[in-house]
Amino acid sequence: MELEEMKTLWEEMSQKIEKQQLVTDQIIMDMTQQKYTNKFSIILIYESLGTVICYGMAIYILFNIEKLDTWYLMTCGIFTVSLLFILPLLTLRSLTRIKSLDVAAHSYKETLVRFERSKKRLLLLQRTGIYLGFILFLVVLPVMDKIFNNKDMFTMDMAAFPWILTGVVFVLLIFFIRWGYDCYKSITTSSEKVLKELED
How many other CB atoms are found less than 10 A from the CB of residue 102? Predict the structure, then answer.
């Protein structure tokens, strides 16, 4: 009789321990998901703000597109508007995809594979955006000069000051873009560490 009671008690305790383990595992998964999601929240806010600014600029250029009265200014204008609409959209989509990775939905290995795939896509998009950003900087100058000052940069003689100012802004742009890319690398590395903590 005592042996049967002990056996029953042991089974009850085992079930309780299993339930506690499941609850503990779920809490750990929820905390990991929250930490992982939070890593991308701030950068998503900045990118959303940047998207609003880019779209506002693109819409402004579209409303003034008739001022671009030569084929090369029109080409620069269309290229600028296209990039201002497409690049932020792709970035937001890529960020949303990596942020919404469900840690608990897949095995640990599958989660890491999905994360790695999203990370590569996001960083490739950022590198592509860097090169296109430099081109955009050079292309948007004549567009804005024509819209704001009604001057064609390609046909007029420019004083030294605008060229110096353009050079300084270009150098500052290099530092800003480099800082932004480093932030993306840091966030993705940090997020990967959060996911790898699940292995322990």
Answer: 12
188 exposed, middle or buried (CB, 10 Å; 0-12, 13-18, 19+)?
A: buried
Q: How far apart are CA 128 and CA 130, in angstroms?
A: 5
State pLDDT tens for residues 125-181. Answer: 999 988 998 899 889 988 988 898 888 877 776 666 667 777 888 888 888 888 888
Nearest C-alpha neighbor of 73 from the set 87, 60, 61? 61
Q: What whole-number distance in Å separates Cα of residue 82 and Cα of residue 95? A: 20
Residues 115 and 98 sit within 8 Å (Cβ to Cβ): yes
CA dist 131 and 70 (Å) reads 26
Contact between 194 and 32 under an 8 Å Cβ cutoff? The reply is yes
Residue 20 and residue 12: Cα distance in Å, rounded?
12
Which residue type occupies 176? Answer: F
Q: Which tokens sit at 92?
A: 């937001």
The whole-angstrom separation of Cα 160 and Cα 141 is 16
User: Which tokens sit at 197?
Assistant: 């903590």
pTM to 2 decimal places = 0.77
* Helix axes of 160-196 and 108-149: crossing angle, nearest 10 degrees: 170
Count of structural domains, the chain: 1
DSSP state of 109: H
Closest CA to 136 of 96, 169, 181: 169
The domain containing residue 139 runs over which residues? 2-199
